[in-house]
């Protein structure tokens, strides 16, 4: 099994994401969670099954007591230097479900980075006190770099990527897949479905990660509707085409609504603008889902959004039973609980636990 101790950072950087994935395992099990490319179809199905099992166990007080007893002697650090509400609270809740005490840094002004400490030194400091580091950063590749650095110290700890620059957000993509698994459970699963991505696809790291995960399913069609400057990147299209995934790329959103099994809306991510106001000069008025569109959708389609939203989904849509974004958000807590449990080898205990009748 490849080990990060056996490869230099320079040589590691030359590998593509799929070739790096085996380095993030330990004794054949998931250790670091950094890329969507780490997960194949079997892994996605297994993770979804574990999340559902946890969800059912948590329905009773004895079940919650069992879950809280799984990892009380492990500690998690949430290092979120990029603003977040849902991802932060979701991870914190996942740790609490498993009984893990948490520490957090959400503002570098309150840490030694304010005094000039490097982020590498900060993360190495955290590894002295915690058994898991969950990272969210506007710096692309930082989580990957720290996984390599810590693996080459005398106290390696797993790193979970909670959002890395504009490139990857694997746990958001995992909860999105889990939501699709649950939504299409009685319709043959995700195979053969058409998923339409809408909005800021060039800078939407959730879209990039989810598109890669969906390439694990048979006969899916991925449709990308966005203004030309915000269209999905060629690097993602190359990955999909190499996997034989049918892709449909264009600027017209409304013409794609009727054929969609799932519509994945995204906000305009103007925090990545090279110059303030760049995004405002792009006409995005045609990339909003409004109540008038609902009649043209399939009756069993689903609407997703990674949140937060602005005006790309009208609040009038919230009442429609096909609006899954609130359930999708809660699913994040369950899928992240499953990931953490798996990293520390408690997945077998969860599957073996007898669920009491309520």
Write a structural description:
The chain is α/β, with parallel strands linked by helices. It has 2 domains: 187 residues, Rossmann fold, CATH 3.40.50; 161 residues, Rossmann fold (3-Layer(aba) Sandwich). 36% of the residues lie in helices and 13% in strands. The protein has 13 helices and 11 strands. Strands 9-8-7-10-11 form a 5-stranded parallel β-sheet, with helices on one face. Strands 4-3-5-6 form a 4-stranded parallel β-sheet, sandwiched between helices. Strand 8, helix 10 and strand 9 form a beta-alpha-beta unit. The longest helix has 19 residues.
The CATH architecture of the largest domain is 3-Layer(aba) Sandwich
Distance between the termini: 44 Å
Morphology: globular
Number of domains: 2
Estimated structural class: alpha/beta
Query: What's the total helix number?
Result: 13
- Topology-level CATH name of the largest domain: Rossmann fold
Q: What's the level 1 CATH class of the largest domain?
A: Alpha Beta
Beta strands, count = 11
Spatial order of the strands in the main sheet? Answer: 9-8-7-10-11
Give the SSE order as H and E letters: HHEEHHEHEHEHEHEHEHEHEEHH
Proportion of residues in β-strands: 5-15%
> Rg, please?
20 Å
Largest sheet: 5 strands, parallel
Q: What is the name of the CATH superfamily of the largest domain?
A: Aspartate/ornithine carbamoyltransferase
**Overall mean pLDDT:** 88
Poorly predicted segments: none
């Amino acid at each position: 099994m490849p080990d990060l101790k056996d490869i230099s950072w320079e040589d590691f950087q030359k590998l593509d994401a799929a070739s790096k994935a085996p380095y993030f395992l330990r004794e054949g099990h998931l250790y670091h969670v950094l890329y969507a490319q780490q997960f194949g179809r079997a892994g996605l199905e297994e993770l979804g099954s574990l999340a559902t099992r946890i969800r059912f166990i948590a329905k009773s007080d004895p079940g919650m007591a069992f879950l809280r007893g799984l990892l009380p002697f492990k500690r998690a650090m949430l290092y979120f230097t990029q603003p977040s509400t849902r991802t932060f609270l979701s991870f914190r809740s996942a740790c609490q479900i498993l009984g893990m005490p948490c520490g957090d840094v959400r503002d570098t002004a309150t840490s030694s980075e304010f005094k000039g400490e490097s982020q590498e030194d900060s993360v190495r400091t955290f590894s002295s006190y915690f058994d898991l580091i969950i990272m969210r950063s506007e710096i692309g590749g930082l989580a990957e770099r720290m996984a390599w650095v810590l693996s080459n110290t005398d106290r390696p700890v797993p790193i979970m990527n909670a959002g890395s620059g504009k490139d990857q957000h694997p746990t958001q993509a995992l909860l999105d897949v889990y939501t699709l698994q649950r939504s299409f459970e009685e319709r043959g699963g995700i195979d053969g479905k058409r998923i339409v991505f809408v909005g800021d696809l060039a800078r939407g790291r959730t879209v990039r990660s989810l598109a890669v995960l969906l390439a694990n399913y048979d006969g899916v069609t991925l449709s990308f509707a966005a203004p030309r400057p915000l269209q999905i990147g060629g690097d993602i299209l190359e990955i999909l085409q190499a996997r034989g995934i049918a892709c449909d790329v264009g600027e017209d959103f409304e013409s794609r609504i009727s054929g969609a099994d799932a519509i994945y809306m995204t906000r305009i991510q103007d925090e990545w603008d090279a110059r303030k106001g760049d995004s405002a000069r792009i006409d995005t008025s045609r990339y909003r889902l409004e109540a008038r569109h609902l009649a043209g959708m399939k009756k069993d389609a689903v609407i997703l959004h990674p949140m937060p939203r602005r005006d790309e989904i009208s609040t009038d849509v919230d009442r429609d039973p096909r609006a899954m974004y609130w359930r999708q958000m809660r699913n994040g807590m369950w899928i992240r609980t499953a990931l953490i449990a798996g990293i520390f080898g408690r997945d077998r205990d969860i599957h073996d636990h007898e669920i009491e009748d309520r």
